[in-house]
Design goal:
This protein has 473 residues and is α+β, with helices and mostly antiparallel strands. The chain is built from ten helices and 25 strands.
Length: 473
């Protein structure tokens, strides 16, 4: 079924078009982003049940104007008279600019935006509209999952959650008339277990441009989660050192996000805070390694027609055959750098500024099977279960927390499990060690990425199984 456009945004669109016309009398450039996001979160465990608003729910507007070589913004979420609103915006922004100049505050200057005339729309599709399923039915499905998992050996708590989002946005300027409406879903199942004095937890996430059909995927994961919990509770410690490893797609995505996602956000190029700026056009990975980002590069939670600055989403190749080709950028960073924006300007909400943000970030597939990759390793591990990561874009250090490693000896899985693990390294060394890639890719979109003043946006990451060399501890 097709996702419906917000009735509210449809109703206010003529007013917002009028606002652009009025503001154009005083400013060289004017745009307005109109946002309406609704959603609900459901959580069921053995000790709690909750229903609440989705974290990213919002309804509001942000106006951007160009005056005296810089851009200024004004956000609001209600208005009565559009002419009065235009007058208030004009007076407020001109007064603030004058005060900045009087106080000698340095402005972030940028060239004027020159737009092409574009009128486009996108309507997403899902199988089961979550609003057509009662909250009681959704909670009932999640309780069944929780109760089934809670019956597992060692389990002291089993939680299941689902959240459903409906996104509608308009972007209007003198030359652009853009509309998009789509839905996505996120879910998770998590088991907490105890054996003797050892306690551990296993988490599995599910996501996509989907509706309530996601509940079927969560329900089908219980057995795998219980098996993984058993493995984690009885895992040994790893002997620290360098190892040949195979990263499961979830770990591959964590590496993509931390190693060369943040590192190529081009607003960091503007601020001279990213080493990657010096390596564009140079080798940074093995010849078989390629990596992408972009709202148009995959179908996941961060796929869209246009970003929060009205730039159409792209399919951006960041690394091609081992060479760093380009970074990703928001519109204003691209203007300052003299490059083409990649559609990565995203806001946490209409009340927040736009930064360069990742969308769907992943390594591309190869032509190896997982069995061939395992057979190629004499002494190493198959890594699974991403927990968290940290990066240093200025010096290219990386640290990833991994749930477990399955031991490989002489080309075979031994059944021994180690964990939890810390994966560390220097990004180019890690990427240059990639020697095999599986023939299938998975992306994961249950998380969010923080930047600036801990401003969060939805992202996804992933890729194939990768064979590489890393330090484990």
């Amino acid at each position: 079924m097709q996702v419906k456009m917000s009735e509210y945004l449809t109703a206010v669109k003529p007013d917002m078009q009028k606002l652009v016309e009025l503001l154009k009398k005083d400013f060289a450039y004017v745009s307005v982003l109109c946002t309406d996001v609704t959603g609900t979160t459901y959580l069921v465990g053995q000790r709690q049940t909750s229903v609440g608003d989705y974290h990213f729910n919002e309804r509001g507007f942000v106006v951007r104007v160009y005056e005296n070589s810089c851009y200024m913004e004004y956000s609001f979420n209600e208005y009565e008279d559009i002419e009065k609103l235009a007058s208030t915006i004009t007076e407020t922004l001109k007064k603030e600019l004058h005060m900045m100049e009087e106080l000698g505050i340095e402005k972030m200057e940028a060239p004027l935006i020159h737009e092409e005339k574009i009128e486009k729309s996108m309507t997403g599709e899902i199988s089961v509209d979550p609003t057509s399923v009662s909250p009681e039915e959704i909670l009932g499905r999640l309780k069944k999952i929780s109760d089934t998992g809670a019956a597992g050996k060692y389990v002291i708590e089993f939680r299941a959650a689902a959240q459903f989002a409906h996104v509608s946005k308009l972007f209007l300027s003198e030359k652009k008339d853009l509309m998009q409406t789509y839905a996505y879903a996120e879910g998770m199942a998590a088991a907490i277990g105890v054996d003797g004095e050892k306690q551990d937890m296993v988490f599995r996430g599910f996501s996509g441009l989907k509706g309530a059909e996601l509940l079927d995927e969560i329900e089908g994961s219980v057995d795998d989660i219980l098996k993984m919990l058993d493995d984690k509770l009885h895992a040994d410690s790893v002997v620290p050192g360098m190892y040949d490893v195979i990263t499961a797609p979830e770990i591959t995505g964590l590496i993509a996000h931390e190693a060369f996602g943040h590192g190529v956000e081009m607003d960091m190029f503007v601020k001279e805070r990213a080493l990657a700026k010096e390596y564009v056009g140079k080798k940074v990975a093995s010849d078989i390694t390629s990596m992408k980002d972009g709202a148009a590069s995959a179908a996941e939670v961060s796929s869209y027609l246009f970003d929060d600055e009205g730039t159409l989403g792209t399919d951006t190749t960041i690394i091609k055959d081992g060479t760093l080709v380009t970074g990703i950028s928001d519109l204003l960073s691209a203007l300052r750098l003299g490059t083409t924006p990649t559609g990565n300007g995203k806001r946490e909400s209409f009340e927040r500024k736009a930064y360069t943000r990742m969308t769907n970030t992943f390594f591309t597939t190869g032509d190896n099977t997982l069995e061939e990759m395992i057979a190629s390793i004499k002494d190493g591990y198959l890594l699974d279960g991403a927990q968290s990561g940290m990066e240093d874009p200025k010096h290219w250090g990386i640290q990833c927390m991994v749930s477990m490693g399955r031991e490989i000896k002489d080309g075979k899985l031994t059944g021994k499990v180690v964990g939890p693990l810390t994966l560390t390294g220097y990004v180019p060394d890690l990427l240059k060690s990639i020697s095999m890639r599986s023939d299938k890719t998975e992306l994961f979109g249950t998380g969010a990425c923080g930047k600036g003043y801990k401003e969060w946006v939805k992202v996804s990451d992933g890729g194939p199984y990768l064979k590489c060399k890393v330090r484990l501890g």
